[in-house]
Each structure stands twice: as structure tokens, then as C-alpha cells.
Amino acid sequence: MEKITVSSDPAATEMLAVATAAGIDTVWDRHRMQQPQCGFGSLGLCCRICWKGPCRIDPFGEGPQFGICGADRDTIVARHLARMMAAGAAAHSEHGRHIALAILHLSQGRLADYKIHDEAKLLAVAGRLGIAAEGRAVLDVARDVALKTLEDFQNQDDETPCNWISASLPAKRIDRLRQLGVLPHNIDATVARTMARTHVGCDADYTNVLLGGIRAALADFNGMVLATELSDALFGTPSPVVTTANLGVIKPTAVNVAVNGHNPLLSEVICDVAHEMDAEARAAGAKDGVNVVGICCTGNEVMVRHGIPLATNYLSQEMAILTGALDAMVVDVQCIMPSLARVAACFHTQVVTTMDENKISGATHVSFHEETARETARRIIALAINAFGRRDQARIHVPDVKHTAIVGFSAEAVIGALSKLDAEDPLKPLIDNIVNGNIQGVALLGGCNNTKSTQDESFQVIAKTLAKNNVLLLATGCGAAAFAKHGLMTQEATNLYAGDGLKAVLTAIGRAAGLDGPLPLVLHMGSCVDNSRAVALATALADKLGVDLSDLPVVVSAPEAMSEKAVAIGTWALAAGFPTHLGTVPQAGGSANVVKLVTEDAKGLFGGYFLVEPDPEVAAGKLVAAIKEKRAGLGL
Amino acid sequence: MEKITVSSDPAATEMLAVATAAGIDTVWDRHRMQQPQCGFGSLGLCCRICWKGPCRIDPFGEGPQFGICGADRDTIVARHLARMMAAGAAAHSEHGRHIALAILHLSQGRLADYKIHDEAKLLAVAGRLGIAAEGRAVLDVARDVALKTLEDFQNQDDETPCNWISASLPAKRIDRLRQLGVLPHNIDATVARTMARTHVGCDADYTNVLLGGIRAALADFNGMVLATELSDALFGTPSPVVTTANLGVIKPTAVNVAVNGHNPLLSEVICDVAHEMDAEARAAGAKDGVNVVGICCTGNEVMVRHGIPLATNYLSQEMAILTGALDAMVVDVQCIMPSLARVAACFHTQVVTTMDENKISGATHVSFHEETARETARRIIALAINAFGRRDQARIHVPDVKHTAIVGFSAEAVIGALSKLDAEDPLKPLIDNIVNGNIQGVALLGGCNNTKSTQDESFQVIAKTLAKNNVLLLATGCGAAAFAKHGLMTQEATNLYAGDGLKAVLTAIGRAAGLDGPLPLVLHMGSCVDNSRAVALATALADKLGVDLSDLPVVVSAPEAMSEKAVAIGTWALAAGFPTHLGTVPQAGGSANVVKLVTEDAKGLFGGYFLVEPDPEVAAGKLVAAIKEKRAGLGL
């Protein structure tokens, strides 16, 4: 087998050698074991929607061209993609509903361990949703916001769109989406309908199926916006904070607790109570007390809000356990490798699942409920302190790799920083610099890690190329973590990699904002649900200019897209009007019609479209070209 | 390739020769083309839930044992099954919601083309749902029933179960399901949560995943009950009616319109207006006017309510077009072969899709909305009359095969017939005969057709064996259609095949009900959503006896299970406490743990379990044994 570089992350690479020496399989071994991967599945030409199957379409046109039911390649490919979008929408929205219900219960006095940390955000959200707030008690407003949010899971009138999407996109975009019949009216119902219309013997018109999928993807957007905004109200809106990232944040001298997953409801409380238990940790021999570190998007959530150091992102989550110094990994939902329990079984590390609907065979389950959040968090940290005592000192190996990262760039924080240049009209300096070309455009880099790419590498190549071309860079999710881990969220990176125009703007803003130098090269907006923050910024720009999102020189890139959530995000980015790069080739190549629809025809329908390109250099070039095309459309 | 008998249906077999002669591929050709089917998929060991994959587990233990994310065979198998259950629940419940919304809109005066046909049923339903009805206008009660039903798609409190399931199962069963955490609180939310928990990196404990799937399956049950009961209120509760079944019901001398799919909202109106257009059909040369025939479950719906003849069931739906005498096939949702448009392109037949979320490339789409139902129905029949003029007389070939079928045995109709024996206590004769052994037990035969079986054959073998063993037979869906097509819904069949005890009981009831002889051998309860009718009957029995459903000598069999709806139905049958036979081997064989859970451990948890057995003779023996075991449990 060809020797390949599996990760560009030196810490992960170092730990991989440790894993190999110890004979412990990791995600990269499993990837290798899975080669060659099924060609039918890779092309989307496999269907397992009913028990007459499995059916496969011969991509070469010689074998079967239809499933047993009669579905053709287009229908088979489209159905599978639509179901991925529905699953992504379900995942994000479940997270969002969880936060909404927590706020409802808080407003009812049922949650002693939470409070509204950001009243200004709550009031801003209430205003957007048309809820009167003046002179009312905060918790009453919170209740109404929660109830208005839950309507987006309850409304039964197809023609009345969800509250949140209506309040979060430019009117022109809403009109376009309504005309195309893809404006969701209810998140759950849209997920269920997508499943229903892809049942055997239902929708067999690939365009119709995909429009249904796009409606589900926009339901995903709705779920993400509400998750972000309500989390901000509950836990605070991120503002810039300096922290560190990569496995070197794990301290051999502390009880290390990693929070992994996506939902901040538990991890916020763990951060709250961790230092209350420092004394117990010290008593157990950990001189630096309790050290909470983040992994994946739960990590991003607590990083952008509180500067909690980030240990790593999706693909290298097992490596945190391999350091031998991680005492507990506390997981909630999504993108948690089931292998964690098996890796942890080779160490003292306690893997703790916390959500009743997300257990892992072999892990310890501590059922989390908001009503008893602090108690549960303390119980989990106690498990970590206990595990600390079982450490094998000989096996501790923490890579000496970490980077400073300036993070916490919510839309509000970006506009706040801009207001230092123009307090009256904060967006004006940004628009002026886009118009004068100092900034050519804006790129949002997000999405997952994927073993099909060298971990984190495409993110860096694309970011550096775009920066050189004076593109303002925003990042979320595992993409943001990749930049944080590699030192691209620093002022040094701006000085090193930004083109002159971009550097001048970032420096002007940074200085005005009181930093002794530029803003970091890549602005960390948060977790993957926080892609909504980039849309909020773009919507503010579009509204200010009186244009639609699809008119803006804004592009999206998910160089290592992997999860169904990423499929949903990429799809709503397309539907929002953004050229959207995928570095992973979708399981769709078996249908030329579907490929044409999402890469070409979508441009006429939505303004956005998919750019599929695994090579990051080539991808960056295409993104720059897409930005130039959008600029030309604006006469720039 | 081995010569195999593809159908036990002489009409389908005759038409298959016509198809072969004409060089037109049918479902059986596509089945043959798909051989050999993928072994990984057949065992459930393929995962396409994220774009790191596709991943496959080596069933022999030599190749990969984990997906790239780390998911093991148990998780991979369980996730796929749970998603099938969710999709089934989504499909049935979408149908149910459609009816509920129609009733709501009717109550608001928005639907001129509908009325409440069965006020007694509406009032009975209102009573079950705790809605006061006395002295109120029918439409006001209807509105409250619709709103109470929609709550089952809206409730956000996990701990409050859906209204319909609570009103439809014995209290003991509800308690057991609550204890196991599988009682659904909201259909849509349960579907969405099932999708969310099966997203990459979420639930990785196969038992937990499957319990989540079972909750979705019980949401499916909820959706089916409400679909059945509200359809009865709207269109009438079925009562016995004599009709005919099989392709011979197509009349060369009439404009033939087949209604195919599942949802009665359009087909009911088509039946209403068809004869208004007889004169136009005659003017076009069709001396027998318009002849509406049914296919699949839309066919069952109008058959049990109005005695509309049934042309055929799922697997042979293409054959209806091949007769050359079908002028239009009007389809709504589910189990409609996408190939219909291609087969119809070889004939004059107009394939008309009617639901905006269920189109077929190559078909004519006439968008159906309840507000303009009659107008749409007339437009569709006009298309059929127009197509009639394009018939190629030389290609008309209608098999001379049809059987009488006595159908329409709703739970109310069965109890109504029993009341002729004991007006005071209608269930008493049934219970007495179960106790004295004249009736050994009750079997519900339902589910699909599947190309993996000889069409309809297993149904007949199992039914005849069970009947000989004095098991009372109920049937729904494509199973019911199989019996109707083959003459097993006749008095002659009772005389031929029923064991002495069963024959005596069916004869006593039949005579008391004014029939000149016994009830038919198999009682047609309706479409696949009408499996709820069998549960209603079983619940009445259990409540009368003060036992749980799992105590009753009641079994379920789906010898040709195929669709995700069937997976959901089979699963809720298990969860309701019934031994449930599957003649199709589920895509689960790759996980011994999952297989053990659903075939063995489920018995302890739910009382019900899966009996997987493709051989119908063997299956019948196992079902008889399961009935005997349940009888022994009751001391019989």
C-alpha cells in the first residue's frame, strides 16, 4: 500500500506513531482497511430503501439500469442525497430544539443551573421575531422567544414559513425561495416529508426530489440559526478571546476533561463547575487542578465563548485519549467516534456518554438532564478525578504542539470591531473596502474532516491562497479548529499570508479595536451550527446594499465535508445563493443529471451552486474566480 | 438461469407472457437483472451514512470489522433498520396528516367537495379522544378531532404520549411501552429524532438505537390509527360488500381508470364523479361508460368502502397497463412503480401523478388539492376518456381472470356481525369460541409483495394452513389483495379450507348476519394503514378479558414484506406484543446481536418478537405453535 500522509497536523501525526507502536487502531487504520470502497455506493448508485433490494445501477450502462421498483439512476442518487439533507436537518434541529426547550423550562423556573447570560441578545432576538420586549421581565421575553421558536417545529400550514428563516435572510432571498417552493414551514414536518417522499414508490422525479431535499436543507438552516442565537442568549454572544489549540493543551499535571460533541448545554456547566473541584483534583495529585479542553464543536462552543483551549477536531479525537493524560472524555451528540470506548479501554480514560439517545457500547452513561445539570457535571468531573488516580505515568505522551488562537468572532463581534472605524455606520468600512478591492470578497470555510483528505491540509492551502488574493476568511466547525490548531488564527498569520489589501484592512480594524496589530487571518465564528453567523453577516451586508445574498462576492468551502449535517449545510449555502466548494466528491457521480442540476442549473435557480474539487489549489482558484464573477455582477 | 415461477397469480402470469412477447421489461425482469444482489447490503453490513464511506463490514470476520468512524456491525445494522422504521412512520403519518388537515379545512368551510359521511364514527372517535360531542354541530366536533390529531404532530413534551396511541391500545400495553421509553410523544419529532440519533457519531449502542426505532414504529402505528379512523369518519366505515378482484375487472368496453397508491382523498372523489361522466365516455365509444378499478392500497380503500373492483396488487401493477385496455392510471403516494411511465409509453395509457411531492419523470402531473377535488377528478377522467380514443384494439388483452370477493370487515363490521349472535355482548361469542377451541387464535396477514417470493403464494399457503388449524384470518394491504385475487375471500373458500371449528363459527356468524352461508375465509380489513383495525379488534378483546395484547393468541404475518412501511408495521406489531412472521429475511443478518434482540430478547421485553421464515409451510407451523404457546399462557 502506498505510503500516504494522513494528517497535516504534527500533533496528530506524532500520536499516530504512538498508536501504531501500541497496536491500537485509529480512524486512519479503519480507512485503510475499508479500501477499496464500494464503487456503487461511491457513485450513489446503490439503493437499500426497500427489501426487494439492495439494487445497484451499472455505471457503465451494461448491467442493470433500473432498480427492481423501476427507479432510475437519477431517482436513486437524488433520494439518497435528499435523505442525507433530512438527516442533517434533523441533527442540527434536535440540538436547536434542545436549547429552545431549555430556555422554555428556564422561563418556567424549572432550571436552577442556568440563566440568561446575554439579555441584550435575547432582546435583539425577540425583536427579530416580532416579540414585544420593552418593560417586560427577561424570563417572560425568554418564554415567548422559546414558544415562537417551537412554532417552527409545530406549524401545520405549508404556506407559512418558519419564523426563524423569515427573520434571518434578506426579503429578496425569502421571495426567491418561496417561488421555488423550498421555504420550510416546519422543521420536523419537512424532515418527515423528505423521508416520506423518498419511500419506495413515491417521488421519482429527481428534480422534485432534490427540491424537497433543499427544503429540508433550509430547515437545517432554520435549526442552526435558532441553535446559535438561543445559545448566545443563554450562554453569551462570543467576543474575541485569546486561547490555545492542539493536543499540547492537555496538561500532564492536571485532571484533564475533554468535552466532545456539539451541544453546549452540558459543557457550559462543566466549565462552570470545573474550578469548584480544583481542590479535589489537587488532593488527588493533580497540581494544576481540573483542566477542561474541547474537541470538535462542543469544543468550539466553549472556546469561542470562554476561551477554553481546543484539543483537536473530529478526525483526531482518538488521539486525545492516546496521550495517556486524558482522564475523561465527556460526549454529547454528533460526530463522536464509537471507537472512543475501545481506545479508552486501553487506557485509564473514562468515556462518558450523557444523552439518553446517544449511547456508546462500552462507555459509561451518565444521563444528563438540565434540571440537575450542576450535579451531573460534578459527578462527571468526579469520575475524571477518580480516573486520574489510575493513570499509567509511563504511557503519558502529550505532544508539545499548541498554537495561540484569537477566536470568538460572532457577527456581533465583527460588526463591533468595525464600529471602531465607523461608529455610525459599522458596515461602511467593510463595504468601502470590498468596493475599492482591498477586500475582494468573503469566504466561509467550514465543514468536517474526512479521511479521504489529508487532515486539515486543504483548509490551510485554500485559506492561504484566498488570503493572498485578499479574501476575508471566516471559519466554523472542524475547519475553524484546523486553523486554530495550525496557527492561522493569529496576527502573525495575517502578516505572513494576507495580501496587501486584506492586511491593511485587518490591521486598521485590529488597531482601532485596541489590538496591537491586525485581526487574525481567519476569524473563528464558532461551531458548525454557527455557520448561521456568517449568513447573518452576509445578510447585514446584502440588506445594507439592497441586494440579494447571491449578488455578494461571498463563497463557501467545505474541503473535507463528511457528515450529513455538512451535506445539509452545503446545500442551504447553495440555496442561499453562494458558490459552494466541496472538496469531497459527493456520492452522486452516478447521475449526470443530478450532477448537472447542483453544479450548473442551480446557478440559474438559486444563484448558488456546487463547485466539486478535491485539489485544494485548484479549488482555491475556482473560488477566487467565483468571487470575481460575483464582483463583476455588482459592477466591481 | 434457473426457470422460476414469478407469480402464483394466473392473470399476472398471463400478462407476463404478453410483456415478454412485446419486449417490455417488468419488475420481474428487473429483479433478474439485479441478481446477484449485494451480500453486504443484504446482511445490513453496508453503511452510507457519511461521506467517509461507503463502509462495509466483512461478515466472515477477516476483512474490516468497523466502519471508518468506528461503528461496529451491530450499530450499522441497527441504524439502517431504525431509519427504515422512521421512513415508514413518516410515510404513513404523512398520509394521516393529509386526512387530518382535510378534516380541519372541511370544518372551516374550505372544502366544498367533501363531507363527513360517517357521523357516528366521528362521534365515536371524538369520545375516544376525550372530546365532548353532545349537542354540538358535526363540523365543530370534526374541527376538534382534527386539532387533537394534529397535536400528535406538535406536542413538545417527551413525557406526554400521543393522543391516538393512548386512545387505541390497552392501558397495560401503554404502561409497558412507557416503561420501555418507546411511547411516542409526537410523530414528526420521533421521525426527526430517529434520523438525528442515527447521524454519524451519535447513538452507537444497538439496543438503544433499536428502541429508538421501535418508538418510531409506534409513531407509525399512531399515524396509521389516525389515518384509518379519520378516513372512516370522512368517507364511511367499511361494511361487508361483494365485489370482484383480479385483472379481469378491466372492461374492454369501458373507459378504464385505475386508482393506485394509498391515500383515499382523491380516489374517493374519482369514484364519486366517474359515473357523472359515463355519457362522455359513451360518446367516445365506450359503451359501458367509465369503469374505476383499484390497484394496491388506494384500491383496497375504495374496495372496502364502495365495492370498487380491485385490478391487482403491488407487484403486478405494470400488468394493468399491459392489458392495453387501461386508459388512465391515477396515482397518489407510495408503492407506485416509477417504471409505470415507461411501460405506459408503449401504450395509450395516461399515467397521472397527482401529489406535488410524488411526481414521476415521464408521467402527466395534475396537481391535486382538496379545494378543487371534483374539478381535478373530472379533469383526470377526461384525460382517460381522451386516451380511450387512442387505444390500439389489436393490443387489447385482458385476462379472463377474476374472483368474487366479500370485503369490508372493519372492526366495527366484525363486531356488528358478532352482535347478531349476541346483541348484548358481541365479543362473547368470539371469546367463547376461542376458549372452547373452535377458534384457536387470530392471524393478521398483511404487508407487501416482494420479488424475492413467488407473488401471493406464501399468503395462500399460510392462510390455508392456518385456516385448517382453526385460526381466524384477517388481512390488509397487498396481502388482502392477494386473497381477493385468488378467491379466498369467498364462502366457498371457507367451506373448502376452514377447519371444522372455524367453519362452524364463520357459518354461525354468517347465517346470523343474513348471509346464506359462512363469512369468507379471510376477512378483508382494508389497506395497509388499516392494520390498525386488527389492533382495534385485539384491543377490544384484551380489554374485555382484562389482559394485555401480548397475552392473546394473536399473530401477525407479512410473508412478502418489502417497504419501509412494512418494516415499521412489523416492528410495532412486535412492540404491541404479537409474534410477527416475516417471510422476507431482513437486511440484518450481519449482526447476530440485532437478530437475537428482535427474535428472542424482544419476547421478554414486549411479548412480541420476529419469526423470520421464508418457507410458508414452515412459517405457518411456527405461527400455529406461537398461537398454542399464547393459549397455554392463558390456560387454554
What is the CATH T-level topology of the largest domain in chain A?
Rossmann fold
CATH class descriptor of the largest domain in chain A = Alpha Beta
* Overall residue-averaged pLDDT value of chain A: 97
Rg estimate of chain A, integer Å:
24 Å
Structural class of chain A: alpha/beta
Please report which band the strand proportion of chain A falls in: under 5%, 5-15%, 15-25%, 25-35%, 35-45% or over 45%: 5-15%
What coarse outline of chain A follows from CA principal-axis ratios?
globular
Count of the domains of chain A:
4
Report the oligomer: homodimer
By CATH, the architecture of the largest domain in chain A is named 3-Layer(aba) Sandwich
Low-confidence stretches of chain A: none
Largest beta sheet of chain A: what is the strand line-up? 6-5-4-7-8-9
Helical residues, percent of chain A: 40-55%
Tally of DSSP β-strands of chain A: 16
Number of helices of chain A: 26
Which chains share the greatest interface?
Answer: A-B, 98 and 98 residues
Distance between the ends of chain A: 50 Å
* Biggest sheet layout of chain A: 6 strands, parallel
Could you characterize the architecture of this molecule?
- 2 copies of one chain form a homodimer.
- The termini of chain A are far apart.
- Chain A has a 6-stranded parallel beta sheet. In chain A, strands 13-12-11-14-15-16 form a 6-stranded parallel beta sheet, with helices on both faces. Chain A has a two-stranded antiparallel ribbon with strand order 1-2.
- By secondary structure, chain A is α/β, with parallel strands linked by helices.
- The first copy, chain A, has 4 domains: 32 residues, no CATH class; 163 residues, Substrate Binding Domain Of Dnak, Chain:A, Domain 2 (Up-down Bundle); 149 residues, Rossmann fold (3-Layer(aba) Sandwich); 228 residues, Rossmann fold, CATH 3.40.50.2030.
- The first copy, chain A, has 26 helices and 16 strands.
- Helices cover 49% and strands 11% of the residues of chain A.
- The interface between A and B is large, with 98 and 98 residues.
